[in-house]
Each structure stands twice: as C-alpha cells, then as structure tokens.
Design goal:
- It is a single chain.
- The chain is of the alpha/beta class and 299 residues long.
- The chain folds into two domains: 143 residues, Aspartate/ornithine carbamoyltransferase (Rossmann fold), CATH 3.40.50.1370; 144 residues, Aspartate/ornithine carbamoyltransferase (Rossmann fold).
- 40% of the residues lie in helices and 13% in strands.
- The strands form two sheets. Strands 7-6-5-8-9 form a five-stranded parallel β-sheet, sandwiched between helices. It has a four-stranded parallel β-sheet with strand order 2-1-3-4, with helices on both faces.
- Helix 2 links the parallel strand 1 and strand 2.
- Helix 1 crosses helix 10, helix 2 packs across helix 10 and helix 5 packs across helix 10.
- The radius of gyration is 19 Å and the shape is globular.
- It starts with 11 loop residues before the first helix and ends with a helix.
- The structure holds phosphoric acid mono(formamide)ester.
- The site of phosphoric acid mono(formamide)ester has 9 residues, from helix 2.
- Keywords: Pyrimidine biosynthesis, Transferase.
Length: 299
C-alpha cells in the first residue's frame, strides 16, 4: 500500500520522481482521471492551505471526495481515529488524507488499514506534503538543492515542517542550518545552529516558520515585536540576503512577527508560489497512491 506518511519512508529516487511529476503537472501535463475512486479528507486540526489544496488536487484528478467533518462526525461521541478510518474503509473509501494532533498517529493505522493513508500533518512530527511542495518550489528555482544552503528559522522544536525538511534536504545534498531562539532549536534534527544575521546573509534559501503558540505549554508571555527584531526577517536583514536567494514560509504567516509585513510580497519571496505548488505536489502524491493500488489490484 502506498502510504505517504513521512518522506523518510521513501527512496530518494521516489522523492525526485514526485518532485518531477509535480513540476510536470504544473506545466500542464495530462492526468489520468480517477473518477471511480473515492477519497475522504479527515482534518482533526485546523487547516486552510493543506485541506483546500488537497480538495483542489482531488478535483483536478476527477476523484470523488466523500464529505467528512470531525465536528459533526461520531468522533464527537468518542469514536477513535482507528475506528473512524476503518469505518470509512468499510464504506468504500479508497484513500484517506489525515491531519491529526498526535505525533505519529499513522503508525497503528498503517498496520490495520488496507487503503493508503496520506499524512497531512501529525502533531510535531511530519508534514510530508508540505515538504514536497517546498522541494518543488526550490527545484523550480534552481533545478536541484545539492550544494545549496537552507536556513530554517524560528520555532523548530514544534515544527513538523522543519523536521520533514531538515531530513530530506540533507538526503538531497543540501546543507541545512537552524536559527531563531536557542531554546526552540532542536538538536535531534541533525543540523547546526547559526545566529540569525549571519544565517540569512549566507543562505540560498531562507525558510521561516510560524511561532506555534498552540503547541507551547509553558504559559510564558510572547513579545511579538521583540521576537521580530531578534529572530524575524526584518527590512534590515532582507537588504543583506544574497541576490539569488529566495524566502519561503509554509504559512499561515504572522505578518510583522517572523517576517515584516511588506516582505511577504517581496520579489524574492516565494510564499504564494508555495501555495500554488501545493496543489500540484498533492496531485502527484494522490496519483502515486492510486497508481500503486491499481498495480496491486491487477496482479
Ligand atoms: N502550511 C500549512 O500546513 O497550512 P495550513 O495549516 O493552513 O494547512
């Protein structure tokens, strides 16, 4: 079963194939419509980009999308995630796109389900479809990431985007560094720390992260202006980035916190391109899920 739960589980060639396919789809490559297949999107955490771009990708592939809302489902009566997924499988759903607050929620599902699980973000664990669209955006710019330096700035400890990207970028030959508050740096990501001023001035790709207040449990007050001055992409820092460098952010963006408001639309920002690319990256992911399923069915 072609689960898509973490890029760590995919061979490097498979990741490169997905990037290539996503780029081709953006250029207008034809799709093989999948009108006989049904998908359900289960979002247990809030989302705009991931949910809407999966919806759009499913529409472009001619998939039937079974409506599912956690707020009106039997999840509210205490039904577990596993039983919810098994129910949808029993009803005839062919693949599940799931976002859930529990890190690694997909581990038991993979053992118990015979339909693909596509991870749309698990707690502070992984966000592989975001990572794929980030890679697609970098490949669209440079054709590769080998030899490039990427700085990931901000709330690394709570970031599934940072965790997914730190691993895969290094596998693809990039140098990844981290910056932002020291206490939010995560030694387990296998990257080195660099101070913000130096990091943004020396990197090819500057990836900013949202401060994830919803995952902070220490109750300490947050000073947005101070954070912006110390760790944000300010106008001053922007003047010192490399002329060919690009700025990424998975969004939603806290304008004026991790990035100055007016820099979101800067010519070197690719933040809205990332959102456009997300549709094509997710089409490639869905195609892969169904291609593998079809191969298995016809054997
Ligand atoms: N980047 C991202 O995952 O955004 P959403 O939370 O809006 O899906």
């Amino acid at each position: 079963i072609a689960h898509f739960t973490s890029l760590d589980a995919l061979a490097t060639e498979d990741i490169e194939q997905l990037i290539e396919r996503a780029l081709q789809l953006k250029q207008g490559a034809s799709v093989r419509p999948l009108p006989t297949k049904t998908v359900a999107n289960l979002f247990f955490e809030h989302s705009t980009r991931t949910k809407c771009s999966f919806d759009m990708a499913e529409h472009h592939l001619g998939l039937h999308v079974l409506p599912f809302e956690t707020a009106t489902s039997s999840v509210q009566k205490g039904e577990t995630l596993l039983d919810t997924c098994k129910t949808l499988q029993a009803i005839g759903v062919d693949a599940l796109v799931v976002r859930h607050g529990e890190t690694g929620y997909y581990e038991p599902l993979q053992q118990q389900l015979s339909i693909p699980i596509i991870n749309a973000g698990d707690g502070s664990g992984q966000h592989p479809s975001q990572s794929l669209l980030d890679l697609m955006t970098m490949y669209a710019e440079y054709g590769h990431v080998s030899g490039k330096t990427i700085v990931i700035c901000g709330d690394l400890r709570h970031s599934r985007v940072a965790r997914s990207n730190a691993h895969v970028l290094q596998r693809l030959g990039a140098t990844v560094i981290g910056s932002g508050p020291r206490e939010w740096f995560d030694e387990t990501m296998g990257i080195t720390y660099r101070e913000m001023d130096e990091a943004v001035a020396t990197s090819d790709i500057i990836m900013l992260l949202r401060v994830q207040h919803e995952r902070h449990t220490d109750g300490r007050p947050f000073a947005a202006e101070e954070y912006h001055e110390r760790y944000g992409l300010t106008e001053q820092r922007m003047k010192r980035i490399q002329p060919e460098a690009i700025v990424l952010h998975p969004a939603p963006v806290n304008r004026g916190v991790e990035i100055a408001d007016e820099l979101v639309e800067h010519p070197q920002s690719r933040i809205f391109d990332q959102m456009t690319n997300g549709v094509f990256a997710r089409m490639a992911i869905l195609e892969r899920a169904f291609e593998t399923a079809t191969i298995k069915e016809t054997r």
